[in-house]
Amino acid sequence: MQKLVIEGGVPLEGEITLHGAKNSTLPILAGALLCDGRTVLENCPRLTDVFAACRILTHLGCRCRIAEHTVTLQMQNLRTDTIPEALMQEMRSSIIFLGAVLGRTGSCHVSYPGGCELGPRPIDMHLEALRQMGARFLIHDGQLDCSAPEGLHGAVIHLPFPSVGATENIMLAAVLAKGRTVLHNAAKEPEICDLAAFLRSCGADISGDGAGTMVISGVKQLRGCSYSIMPDRIAGITYLGAAAITGGTVCLRGTDASPMDNMLPVLEQMGCRIYPEPDRLHLLAPRRLRPVASIRTMPHPGFPTDAQAIFMAILSLADGVSVLEENIFACRYRHVDALVKMGAKIHVSGRTAVVTGVRSLSGACVTATDLRGGAAMVLAGLAASGTTEVRRICYIDRGYEAIEQVLRGVGGRIVRMETGGSGEL
Ligand code: EPU
């Protein structure tokens, strides 16, 4: 077990190069299962969830080589249509393999995903959509057996909510299905458009991604291609947030402003000055941050739930009262106790969190409760006086590549240690 130890109070200054997006790498890796021949994915982040997805691919019979940030996949026929429970449990989003395996082989056996640190994670919308496309399901002893005896076919599907995972599963199932799928109320996240762009590069016929209604006409075959993953907008806003909370100045390389244009205006409202360039963003933080009257998490293009914890940490040091509302996940305030332990004033009532800014935070020993909540604790630690220890950082490693090295590169005093170990900062 490892922990991050942070000596706070240093304004971050310098350049950060942003890694590729976890949330498009994972469905794109699943998409590679549908392609014949070789797929080369560049700008893949080196994250535990990405390695877990590669282990699933290898198990299914895909040759998978990881060299730095390039993953090369060589697909022959699938060796099996079953993903063992141990592999499914390594990564919550492994359910994304369901649509791809079913689309490729006409059957799939996986363990049923349980709840997770963000609350219940039902897959009813995934299953209902796949049922409309000709799939049948048997659920027994925590196992999900799926088959499409006649093969999958196109359908007109209306999602009751624009679920990211359901949209991805439908896309993966539809690209090789017979006929046309029209998906209404599809998720519009940039990672959906990245998956669609990858599938199109492999020969898929998809239009309307990012617009709410997607039309997918099944093709006979997809061929592997070379594709570069989009930048990770949530890691990007986390690093800009680290500059904001420490009163620093950071240049984020490898992205323009567009993937973050639903979050950057909030940093500007807080008094940060942002200078976008075609392939980088500069952020200059004010001496004291201003509060934000209301942040409501919503499906894209609304404010992303994945940035809620990050902004809560930053606003805990703003000059006044801010209000956040979490509308996507039932249990996404589990980082609040840790921030309060560090001196933040936060009151949660149902979906709403009221953050009364304080003048300073103080270092404490805290435990990450999920990926973004853990990152929020790191940000708070960078701004706090004294030493902060963040434990259970396996959550953070799911979404941030070598976070301590990135932050040290801009002056953060942060090291990774074995739990129980001691070291020099
Ligand atoms: N939902 C249902 N039924 C379903 C599917 C979803 O009720 O069949 C509910 C969920 O329980 C949740 C809401 O709908 O309350 C949104 O879920 P969604 O399916 O949109 O999320 P996801 O696909 O499970 C992805 C990201 C999350 C991100 C959400 C929302 C990946 C691998 N994960 O999850 O990322 O928070 O979309 O944008 O893409 C993260 O990176 O930290 C993370 C959790």
Draw up the topology in text.
Blueprint: E1 2-7, E2 13-17, H1 22-32, E3 35-42, H2 48-60, E4 62-67, E5 70-75, H3 85-89, H4 97-105, E6 107-111, H5 124-132, E7 136-140, E8 143-147, E9 156-158, H6 164-174, E10 180-184, H7 190-201, E11 205-207, E12 214-217, E13 222-223, E14 226-228, H8 233-246, E15 249-253, H9 264-269, E16 273-277, E17 280-284, E18 295-296, H10 308-315, E19 321-325, H11 336-341, E20 345-349, E21 352-356, E22 365-367, H12 371-383, E23 387-391, H13 403-408, E24 413-418
Helix pairs in contact: 1-2, 1-7, 4-6, 5-6, 8-10, 8-12, 10-12
Bound molecules: uridine-diphosphate-2(N-acetylglucosaminyl) butyric acid.
Uridine-diphosphate-2(N-acetylglucosaminyl) butyric acid binds next to helix 1, helix 5, helix 6 and helix 12.
Q: If you had to describe this structure to a student in words, what would you say it looks like?
A:
It is built from 13 helices and 24 strands. The two termini are 19 Å apart. The chain is of the alpha/beta class and 425 residues long. The relative contact order is 0.16. Strand 9, helix 6 and strand 10 form a beta-alpha-beta unit. Strands 3, 4, 5, 13 and 14 form a 5-stranded mixed β-sheet that branches. A 4-stranded mixed β-sheet has the order 22-23-1-24. It has a 4-stranded mixed β-sheet with strand order 2-15-17-16. The chain folds into 2 domains: 206 residues, Alpha-beta prism (UDP-n-acetylglucosamine1-carboxyvinyl-transferase, Chain); 198 residues, Enolpyruvate transferase domain (UDP-n-acetylglucosamine1-carboxyvinyl-transferase, Chain), CATH 3.65.10.10. The mean pLDDT is 95. The chain binds uridine-diphosphate-2(N-acetylglucosaminyl) butyric acid (EPU). The site of uridine-diphosphate-2(N-acetylglucosaminyl) butyric acid has 22 residues, from helix 1, helix 5, helix 6 and helix 12.
